TrEMBL record:
Name used for this protein in its record: Metallo-beta-lactamase domain-containing protein
Region (Disordered): 329-365
Signal peptide (UniProt feature, chain positions): none
GO MF entry, a single one: RNA endonuclease activity
Annotated Pro residues bias: 355-365
Biased amino acid composition, Low complexity: 334-354
Length: 365
């Protein structure tokens, strides 16, 4: 079977003509396989959804229980079949529950990796290379300038700043799903023992990580904290909250931002403490991960496609860009529940010196 008969790109996402299903479609479809819970990959409104149990749980948290007509949980390593196409989910190491999806039929195997990273992360199931004929990769950080440092070394910048400025709150911008919880775990690994304060938009996802056995230590809502608790505290919030009214309750905070983009964008965002912590493969990781699959062919979905395709050609692989749109915007998620939607927000917010402002979710345009 030619690979394109098993899977090819369409304006709605990757589509399998043989299996009649999409992977991470950008618009509602009859049958969707979902790699992970970030909103650019997992959307509400599909007829039937197959994903890992954790991704299904995360979608239910973000969109409500009725986010799809029917759902089917796929365990890692378990081979399922849809219309004669074999389907196996494998860990992608990106966020909790994230998966690469391997399709096989008549001797042809294609792996759609979604977003992935091979580096260590106690908050995600470890990435595993899956042997295949065609590997489909993103290329968010597919340029030689992107070489992510050791996340422990980046975390040490934060703990050093806490020691230097014990009277100042440290406001850390991080995406509500995945990055926020990873920063918490990194802080715990670095020996930070104080309660970590969070924005309300992160509460349910953080609770979910903890309920799945991810150790994050004491985590409290920032809005419930007394002013004295804010001194020297780490406060994690969605990037959009760092500049809105919500952040004014923290006098003279140190502003930090945890993202792979901090390699190049720290100054333009006015961040005092850029933390290069990424949940995506960097330039070296991309190459090593692709070669580890033993694939003959590489398809690149989005990001720095041309550079990765060029590298693959030099490495002896057939490679082509898919020019897919609608991905790579997990940084602009609009789906996290606003703090004001929680039932307890009717109570007076005694920690805030100003009137309680609606805490914006990740609503960056
Ligand atoms: Zn993602």
């Amino acid at each position: 079977m030619r690979p394109e008969e098993l899977l090819h790109s369409t304006p709605q996402g990757l589509y399998s003509p043989a299996g009649d299903f999409f992977i991470d479609p950008t618009r509602p479809v009859a049958r969707a396989l979902i790699t992970h819970g970030h909103s650019d990959h997992a959307r509400a409104g599909h007829g039937a959804v197959m994903a890992t149990r954790r991704t299904l749980d995360i979608m239910a948290i973000r969109y409500g229980e009725g986010f799809a007509g029917t759902t089917q949980a796929a365990a890692y390593g378990e081979r399922l079949e849809v219309n004669g196409v074999g389907i196996t989910f494998h860990p992608a190491g990106h966020i909790l529950g994230s998966a690469q999806i391997a399709l096989d039929r008549q001797g042809c195997t294609i792996v759609a990796s979604g977003d992935y990273k091979p580096g260590a992360d106690p908050t995600a199931e470890p990435f595993e290379p899956v042997p295949c004929h065609v590997f489909i990769s993103e290329a968010t950080f597919g340029l030689p300038v992107f070489r992510h440092p050791d996340p422990a070394q980046e975390t040490a910048k934060l703990t050093a700043s806490l020691a230097l400025f014990p009277e100042r709150a440290h406001l850390v911008g991080a995406y509500a799903l995945g990055k926020a919880q990873r920063v918490m775990a990194l802080l715990r690994a670095a020996g930070h023992e104080r309660p970590i304060l969070i924005h309300g938009a992160m509460e349910r996802l953080t609770d979910y990580y903890r309920s799945e056995g991810i150790a994050l230590g004491a985590v409290h809502l920032a809005r419930d904290a007394a002013p004295a608790e804010l001194a020297g505290a780490v406060v994690i919030c969605p990037p959009g909250a760092m500049t809105d009214l919500w952040s004014r309750r923290f006098p003279d905070p140190v502003t930090a931002f945890a993202s792979g983009w901090m390699r190049i964008r720290a100054r333009q965002n006015g961040v005092e403490l850029p933390l290069i912590i990424s949940d995506h493969a960097d330039w070296d990781d991309l190459q090593a991960s692709i070669l580890a699959t033993g694939c003959e062919e590489l398809w690149v979905t989005h990001g720095q496609e041309d550079a990765l395709v060029h590298w693959a050609g030099l490495a002896g692989l057939r490679a082509r860009p898919l020019h897919m749109v609608g991905y790579g915007e997990e940084e602009a998620e609009t789906t996290a529940a606003p703090d004001t939607a929680a039932p307890d927000t009717a109570a007076p917010d005694t920690a805030a010196p100003d009137t309680p402002a609606p805490e914006s979710p990740e609503t960056q345009p």
